[in-house]
Amino acid sequence: MSGKYLLGVDNGGTMIKAALFTLDGKEVSAASRATGNGLSKLF
Prior knowledge:
By secondary structure, this protein is mainly β. It has one domain. The chain has no helices and 3 strands. Strands 1-2-3 form a 3-stranded antiparallel beta sheet, with no helix packed on it. Strand 2 (15-22) and strand 3 (27-34) form a beta hairpin. It starts with a strand and ends in a 9-residue tail after the last strand. The mean pLDDT is 86.
């Protein structure tokens, strides 16, 4: 895997998500994890 890529990151209240894309828009990899901060329980 060599070349240029785009990394998208979404840091939300309950989950953080990231995805890696080639420059022509093909998804290479994606992952998500719970943040564990418990903010969703407040609302």
